[in-house]
Design a protein that fits this description.
Shape of chain A: globular
Shape of chain B: globular
Number of strands of chain B: 11
Radius of gyration of chain B: 18 Å
Strand content of chain A: 25-35%
Helix content of chain B: 10-25%
Structural class of chain B: alpha/beta
Largest sheet of chain B: 8 strands, mixed
Number of strands of chain A: 13
Distance between the termini of chain A: 20 Å
CATH architecture of chain A: 3-Layer(aba) Sandwich
Strand order of the largest sheet of chain A: 4-3-2-1-5-8-10-11-12-13
Order of helices and strands of chain A: HEEEEHEEEHEEEEEHE
Oligomer: heterodimer
CATH superfamily of chain A: Glutaconate Coenzyme A-transferase
CATH topology of chain A: Glutaconate Coenzyme A-transferase
Number of helices of chain A: 4
Chain lengths: ~220, ~240
């Protein structure tokens, strides 16, 4: 999965364009900035109260200057600090251009499940519901299947839903799907995988784009 | 009590905490959670505490230290993933956890703190997090009603307080603290620095002192952050059974 995480993050980085306001979730999304082209200028927003996060400091880390996962960060010129109500105000209000979240399952209708595996993992919903509700573009990143091989892109999610009809794009190590008008569309096949792999490992119904491409 | 000098000590704070209280705590993953007041809370031996705050901290950071002692009966929070013990207690029926979307939770606390009777939102509608919240129909749309939150005691971490309790915060340690400070019968602030009235620029005060009852000097964080932990095993691995 180590390589798969890198592959997914690298592909997700291409969704971030110059001038965007971007929110990244914890997990795979947190390594997306490692793959951003240096020429791109964006403001990363973190829901713990910072807009304009800079690179992680290599020295003099400050416990009171952290990202939403609790790791040290820095602030860029023009950046700001604010309280949690303001943070979620800008999220709900639609000020975030793209929100990239980790997912446990996504349905073919764009339903997102990422907050609980009942009886097992209980991370909690955090800010995911509001990010999913307010972001102009919501991209879900995840491994294509569970460790035991069960598909995670499903007709209907079996895990509790975070938000219905919110995911616009799914990026896995095998493929890139878009979701428009509630229909799932395969747009890209990632290197090393075939259409057969994707069909065999996807529970959801999907259409294949006329412009499908193999990702370079 | 001198209205204009609310500075006191941990001994006073100890007497404010009581069994069964609803305790609102500031902080986000322990950043901005008052370390001295958490230790004070632990030392008092209070139990059956109803906790409300952003998250469950980490097992050795913030409110997480108290949660691991199994002296809280309930927790309203947005996230408990960084404290596997909290999830374990929840799954064993020892801690009643109500999850709330993060920004909705802080608005509920804010509503309590500013004397409003709650608000309507579509966020969470149709999900398990709607719990039994009333659905209100206005025109063609249905909304969840979110009730205000008020606590018995709030604990807050500030960068600076003057002796009236006017507060300013430090970077991302601000987070929920301004609203936690506003929403309880008694608010205790642990401040890194306590200054005379008139020392803070009135334009830069985040919380006016009218909401603050007591101010206690801080010795600063007394835990290691996750990124300071030498052993990766300690980071996000659940504790051994």
């Amino acid at each position: 999965m180590g390589d798969a995480r890198q592959t997914i993050a690298q592909r997700a980085a291409r969704e971030i364009k110059d001038g965007m306001i971007v929110n990244l979730g914890i997990g795979i999304p947190s390594i997306v900035p490692d793959f951003l082209d240096a020429s791109i200028i964006v403001f990363f927003m973190a829901e713990n109260g910072i807009l304009g996060m800079g690179p992680s400091p290599t020295v003099n880390a400050d416990g009171n200057l952290s990202n939403a996962a609790g790791y040290p960060t820095s602030i860029l010129p023009g950046g700001s600090y604010f309280d949690s109500a303001t943070a979620f105000g800008m999220i709900r209000r639609g000020c975030i251009d793209v929100s990239i979240l980790g997912a446990l399952q996504v349905s073919e209708h764009g339903d997102l499940a990422n907050w609980i595996v009942p009886g097992k993992r209980v991370p909690g919903v955090g800010g995911a519901m509001e990010l999913a509700f307010g972001a102009k573009n919501l991209i879900a990143l995840m491994s294509h299947c569970e460790k035991d091989g069960r598909p995670k892109i499903m007709k209907e999610c079996t895990l509790p839903i975070t938000t219905y009809h919110c995911v616009k794009k799914i990026i896995t190590e095998m493929a890139v799907f878009t979701i428009d008008e509630n229909a799932l569309m395969l747009n890209e096949i990632m290197p090393g995988y075939s259409m057969t792999d994707i069909k065999n490992n996807t529970d959801a119904n999907f259409q294949v784009s006329a412009h499908i491409k193999a990702t370079a | 009590m001198n209205l204009f000098n609310k500075v006191t000590d941990y001994e006073t704070a100890r007497n404010i905490f009581f069994d069964g209280m609803t305790l609102l705590f500031g902080g986000f993953g322990g950043v901005g959670t008052p370390p001295g007041l958490i230790d004070c809370l632990i030392e008092t031996g209070v139990k059956d505490v109803k906790l409300i705050g952003n998250d469950a901290g980490f097992p050795w950071i913030g409110i997480g230290k108290f949660i691991c002692l199994e002296r809280a009966t309930s927790l309203v929070a947005s996230h408990i993933g960084s404290n596997p013990t909290a999830g374990d207690l929840m799954n064993r029926g020892k801690l009643d956890v109500e999850f709330s979307p993060q920004g909705i939770l802080v608005e509920r606390i804010r509503a309590g703190g500013v004397g409003l009777d709650g608000f309507l939102t579509e966020i969470g509608k149709g999900t398990k997090l709607a719990y039994n919240k009333p659905l209100i129909k206005i025109g063609e749309k249905e909304y969840l009603y979110e009730a205000p939150i008020l606590g018995d005691v709030s604990i807050v971490y500030a960068k600076k307080a003057d002796t009236f309790g006017n507060l300013i915060f430090d970077k991302t340690a601000r987070n929920t603290n301004p609203f936690i400070a506003m929403a309880s019968k008694v608010t205790i602030v642990e401040a890194e620095e306590i200054v005379p009235m008139g020392s803070l620029n009135p334009e830069e005060i985040i919380v006016p002192g009218v909401y603050v009852k007591y101010i206690i000097p801080s010795k600063g964080y007394n835990w290691k952050w996750i990124w300071e932990m030498p052993d990766k095993q300690l980071r996000n691995e659940p504790p051994a059974k």
